[in-house]
Specification:
Order of helices and strands: HEHHE
Mean pLDDT: 76
Shape: globular
Number of strands: 2
Number of domains: 1
Number of helices: 3
Strand content: under 5%
Strand order of the largest sheet: 1-2
Radius of gyration: 17 Å
Largest sheet: 2 strands, antiparallel
Distance between the termini: 41 Å
Low-confidence stretches: 11-17, 53-58
Oligomer: single chain
Structural class: mainly alpha
């Protein structure tokens, strides 16, 4: 019983986080922003070689001293790509 409760709370928590997109376009529905944001994230992951199917951290660099710096650079690159992608689709960052 406790295991099911923990699973339910975990799933609901993930669902709540998934719906929060930090971009807005007053002319488009929120669901479209979520879809476009997901699309831009996937594009950024494909361009940086990161993400679920990526190989960016699957090699020996994961244990190298500079791996933290590599991740920071990749995170910044992804943020820049997502920013460009979302602005190109007509969105503005939420403040």
């Amino acid at each position: 019983m406790l295991r099911r409760l923990i699973l339910l709370v975990s799933v609901l928590s993930l669902g709540a986080c998934a719906g929060q997109v930090p971009w807005t376009n007053p002319n488009l529905p929120r669901k479209m922003a979520e879809k476009d944001y997901t699309s831009c994230r996937h594009y950024a992951e494909s361009q940086t070689g990161s993400g679920a199917g990526g190989s960016y951290f699957d090699d020996d660099r994961a244990s190298a001293p500079m791996s933290g710096a590599d991740r920071a650079v990749t995170r910044d690159e992804m943020a820049g790509i997502i920013d460009y992608c979302m602005r190109a689709k007509g969105y503005f960052p939420m403040k």
